[in-house]
Amino acid sequence: MGEKIGGMLPYLLFILCLQGAMMPAADIGAGEKERGTLETLLISPIDRNKIILGKFLTIAFAGTMTALITVASMALWGFVLSQGMAMKFVADFMAQIGMIDFVLIFLMLVPVVAIFAAALLSISIYAKSFKEAQSYMGPMMIFVIIPIMLSILPGVELTGGWAWVPITNVSLAMKELVKGTMDYYQLIAIFGSTVVIAGAFFAFCIYWFNKEKVLFR
User: Fold this and answer.
1) Where in the sequence is the signal peptide annotated (predicted)?
2) Domain span at residue 57?
3) Which pTM was predicted?
4) Calpha distance 38→30 (Å, rounded)
5) Residues near 107 by Cβ (< 8 Å), separated by ≥ 6?
6) CA distance 118 to 29
7) Of these four, 121, 180, 198, 206, which has the most CB atoms within 10 Å of its CB?
């Protein structure tokens, strides 16, 4: 049961985080182009890197709050169903995963959301309009779903090189946490690789925002 639920959990969480970040990303990038407020913002006495950092943090906050609410809701309803309603299979499941594991699931989502935020903001900056940004962001679902599907294939486990594969490693870690078989030392590789990738995406986003031909295409 833990393996089945753990395999589906990343699919639910990642899609919710991505969708939670999509709308603000499309609005504060391409949306500002349509409203004509981007030019006003750019001529203000504020460093461009600070502007892009503010936009990035806004999108990341929206995605992170989606993750936090989802994980907190799972923990709350698991407790209610196992204790308040005395459902045995839920109680057995909750006995395998502690509060620390729920916290780790949330913490692993934070750098993943940062990757989503940087990628979505880069797309939004490139797009000419809100609708164009949305059309570009839609296919991102595929790039999220494929690594998740890899994590549930037979024989794919959180060992060796899989601990360094982005998104797939977090999916595998969530499955191991739910199963109660997590090797916590693997979290070093998972957090390290995901943070590095998030930093690279954000660096590209800054580079993209500083190109006039991208902003005013």
Assistant:
1) none
2) 2-215
3) 0.85
4) 9
5) 191
6) 12
7) 121
